[in-house]
Design brief:
The chain is an alpha+beta fold. It has 5 helices and 4 strands; from the N terminus they run αβββαβααα. The radius of gyration is 17 Å and the shape is elongated.
Amino acid sequence: MDFGYGNGVDGVFKFIENAEVLAVFFPKFGQSVVIDVRPKEGEPPLVRVVPMERSIADRLRTIKRMRPALPRPQDIVAVPWVGYVDAIKTSGLWGKVVSRVEDSGFPEAVEAAEKAFNELIRMERCELAQLIMGEQYETLWARPTS
C-alpha cells in the first residue's frame, strides 16, 4: 500500500529518523500530533494532540509556547496524513515515531505517544459519526422530491 504517498513513504521515514520536531496533521478533522524529541535534562519528549495551525510558522510558535525552556526549533518536519489514522501504524510511520520517543529513555513519553494515538482514533471516529449523522455538515444539493 502507498498510503497516499506513492512510493515516497520511505522518504518520509528518513526525515522522521532525523527530525527533532515532527508534526503529523490530519486535514480531515483538523488536528495534529506534535512530537518534539529535543533533549532537555529531566524533561521527557513532548507528544501531544493539538489543533492544526494555519502555517509552519504558527506551529513553531506553538511549540515554543509548549516548551518555553527550549529554544525555538530550527526546523520541523510536517507530514500531512490524508488517510485513516490507523493507517499510520500499518504504514510503519507510527512505529518510527515511537522508536524515536523510546530512544529518549522516558517511559512516560512512550505512554503519551500511545495516549495521543488513541485520542486521534477517537477524534477521527467522532468526525466520521458527525459526517454520517449530518452534524456540522450540510447537504450541497438534494434529490428533488416529487
